[in-house]
Amino acid sequence: MRQAHVARATKETDIAIELELDGTGCVDVSTGVGFFDHMLDAFGRHGLFDLKVQAKGDIQVDDHHTVEDCGIVLGQAFAQAIGDKKGIRRFGSSYVPMDETLVLAAVDFSGRGQAYYEVPVATQKVGTFDTELAKEFFIAFAREAGVTLHVRLICGENSHHIIEAAFKACGRALREACEDDPRVEGVPSTKGSL
C-alpha cells in the first residue's frame, strides 16, 4: 500500500494528513479555511487519492500559515507514499477546462522540488481566501514532495474557476505520474536514480 501519515506541529499550525495514492478519491478535509477545503477536496477527488487533512492554524492572523503548512505536510506525505519510485510513470500532465478557464499542470517526480506557477488571477480574494496563497501552497508542496511542477493558466477570467482548475489539474497530473507502469523496470531514469 502506497500510503503515508504525516503530522507537523508548530506555534502557528497543527496539521495531520493521511494519504493513500491508490485510492478512490475519498476525501475528508478540515482546515478552517473554507475555499481551501474545497480546493483540497477537488485535488483529492480528481487525483483519486484517499486524503484526510486535519489542520488547525492561526487563522485569526490570516490563512497564510495554514495553507502553506498544509502544502509542506502534503508534499511530505507524497514523498513518503511514493517511496523509492520504482515502476512509476514519473511524468504526468493534465489540461482541465472549467467553463471559460483552461489550466495545464505538468509534474515530474524528479527529486528536485521546484514549482513554476504562472496562474494570474484578477482578484485578490475568492470569498475570504487570498488568491496569492494558491501559489504558496504549490511551492511548498513541490519542494517537500521532490517534484518539478508546472502550472499554467492558458485562458480564464473567473478567479474561482482558475484556482479550482489548477488544483484539479495538479491532482490529475500527479495521479498519472504516480501510477504504476508495468513496462518500467526499476526507477524510470537514465541515471538509475531519482
UniProtKB/TrEMBL annotation:
EC code: 4.2.1.19
Record protein name field: Imidazoleglycerol-phosphate dehydratase
InterPro entries attached to this UniProt entry: IGPD_sf, ImidazoleglycerolP_deHydtase, ImidazoleglycerP_deHydtase_CS, Ribosomal_Su5_D2-typ_SF
Superkingdom classification of source: Bacteria
Family stated for the protein in its record: Belongs to the imidazoleglycerol-phosphate dehydratase family.
Any Pfam family hit: IGPD
Pathway: Amino-acid biosynthesis; L-histidine biosynthesis; L-histidine from 5-phospho-alpha-D-ribose 1-diphosphate: step 6/9
UniProt-listed GO biological process terms: L-histidine biosynthetic process
HAMAP family: HisB
Compartment(s) where it occurs, according to its Swiss-Prot or TrEMBL record: Cytoplasm
Assigned GO CC terms: cytoplasm
Native source species: Slackia heliotrinireducens (strain ATCC 29202 / DSM 20476 / NCTC 11029 / RHS 1)
Keywords for the protein's UniProt record, in alphabetical order: Amino-acid biosynthesis, Cytoplasm, Histidine biosynthesis, Lyase
Catalyzed reactions per annotation: D-erythro-1-(imidazol-4-yl)glycerol 3-phosphate = 3-(imidazol-4-yl)-2-oxopropyl phosphate + H2O
GO molecular function term, any single one: imidazoleglycerol-phosphate dehydratase activity
